[in-house]
Amino acid sequence: TYVKGDATRPIGDDQKFIIHVCNDIRAWGAGFVLALSRRWSEPEERYRSMSKEDMKLGNVQFVKVEDDIIVVNMIGQHLCWAENGIPPIRYEAIRECLKKVNEAAELVHASIHCPRFGAGLSGGNWETIENIIKETLTVDVTVYDLN
Fold first, then answer.
1. How many CA within 13 A on the CB side of residue 96?
2. Which among 62, 95, 120, 146 is least buried, having the fewest CB atoms inside 10 angstroms?
3. Upper half-sphere CA count for residue 38 (Cβ side, 13 Å)
4. How far apart are CA 5 and CA 146, in angstroms?
5. Whole-angstrom Cα distance, residue 147 to residue 136?
6. 3-class state of residue 89 by DSSP
């Protein structure tokens, strides 16, 4: 489902996961993460404290920020810039992250909420990411576009 609104203020009465893509070098300071940091400090703090081992592509980090909201930092981007014309997004890592997110969401009966992650600064193609979402997530997904 697509809605106009702010992904840091997910709608619904159920348990909610806010998912977004992070890089594998602890760089946090542009794009959607700025909105997250304005609302809660924990997602950035926990991300920056991840070990090198945990920073591997395909890993996820669950950060509870409210009783019914968990932010999921998904390591799905290599570096923050294109290398040899290849954008930072890593689709296979996104797929691995989303499989883990789906498993956790099913366990706690959570819905998924997100901006169009991976299609901005990460350099990805939203249509490709949307297809990965459709292939991997079995729970309700709401994608937010700012007004």
1. 15
2. 146
3. 10
4. 5
5. 28
6. strand
- pLDDT attached to residue 134: 98
Q: Which long-range contacts (CB under 8 A, 24 or more apart) does 56-62 make?
A: 56/24, 57/24, 57/90, 57/92, 57/93, 57/96, 58/92, 58/93, 58/96, 58/97, 59/97, 59/100, 60/97, 60/100, 60/101, 62/17, 62/104
Rounded to the nearest 5 degrees, what angle is found at the Cα of 86, between the Cα atoms of 82 and 92?
115
pLDDT along the chain (147 residues), means of 10: 98 97 96 97 98 96 98 97 95 98 98 96 96 98 94
User: How many angstroms separate the CA atoms of 147 and 115, rounded?
Assistant: 12
Distance (Å, whole) CA 72 – CA 102: 11
Backbone angles phi, psi at 97, to 5 degrees: -60, -50
Burial (CB count within 10 angstroms: exposed 0-12, middle 13-18, buried 19+), residue 42: middle
CB atoms within 10 A of CB 2: 11
Give the span between the Cα atoms of 140 and 17, in whole angstroms: 10
Residue 107 carries which DSSP code?
H
Cβ atoms of residues 73 and 37 within 8 Å: no
